[in-house]
Amino acid sequence: AFCAWVCPYHLLNELSGHLNKKLKSFKPNSHTFSLPSSPRGSLGKLNWRYFIRYAFFVLLILLSAKFGIIAFDPINPVAILSRAMIYFLGLHLLIVLLLFTGECFFPIEKVLCRFVCPMGGLYALMGTTAPIKVTLDPAKCTNCIKGTRACRSPYIFNELYHGSSTITSGDCSLCGKCIDVCNDSALKIGLRFEHKKNRLPS
Fold first, then answer.
1. Would strands 187-191 and 132-136 be described as parallel, antiparallel, or unpaired?
2. CA of 193: how far to CAs of 35, 130, 188, 189, in Å?
3. Among 157, 161, 144, 159, which Cα is nearest to 199's?
4. d(Cα 171, Cα 181) in Å, to the nearest integer?
5. Are the C-beta atoms of residues 88 and 14 closer than 8 Å to each other?
6. Mapped to the 3 state alphabet, what secondary structure does 5-69 carry?
């Protein structure tokens, strides 16, 4: 929940994602990078795109251990914005502005938070065992898939179609977008084992 509710860069990240989509709409032939529907692709093989975040996470840890510094800190928008709010460091905000501008034009939407930020990778790992999750009431669900379309990581809804009534993926930040667009009141934030396992209506 940190990424969606606490992170000072989240608002800018959401804005960059919105502008990124708008800019792509002016370029019909622009390529959009997206994650697969599940960690495993054809023939059950692991899809490397799903684990880009964790590859960056390990790389930054190794670089930090090697050079004795926090490798991500010089371009970490969370740290820069936090320091700027306390110490009023305006010059450092140029780095955040450059990152924001880059995300607006980059082929991958919200690339910094989704794939590069080590805090996001760490919280994703922790989130897999978190007791509070987005849960589904299958009795109310009409399979409109509005929640899936609203999610920035729609592949996390894949498990709801395989007998689960809880999104257990650590990539869910509990932002609540899926709940806001659910007209059936089938989705809500609750305890991960609140509902029994049921399949969605076909």
1. antiparallel
2. 27, 11, 13, 11
3. 161
4. 19
5. no
6. HCCCCHHHHHHHHHHHHHHHHCCCCCCCCCCCCCCECHHHCECHHHHHHHHHHHHHHHHHHHHCC
Strongest mean pLDDT among 57-66, 67-76, 161-170, 187-196: 57-66
Could you give the angle at the alpha carbon of 66 between the alpha carbons of 61 and 69, nearest 5°? Answer: 70
Average pLDDT over residues 148-169: 82
pLDDT at residue 69 in the model? 84
* 56 Cβ contact partners less than 8 Å away, ≥ 6 residues apart: 115, 116, 118, 121
| Residue 168 clears pLDDT 50, i.e. is over it | yes
The pLDDT, as a whole number, for residue 45 is 47
User: How far apart are alpha carbons 57 and 122 in whole angstroms?
Assistant: 8
> Do residues 146 and 78 touch, judged by C-beta distance below 8 A?
no
Query: Bridge partners of 20?
Result: none
Q: For residue 32, give both structure tokens.
A: 């959009």
The structure's pTM equals 0.68
SS3 assignment, position 188:
strand
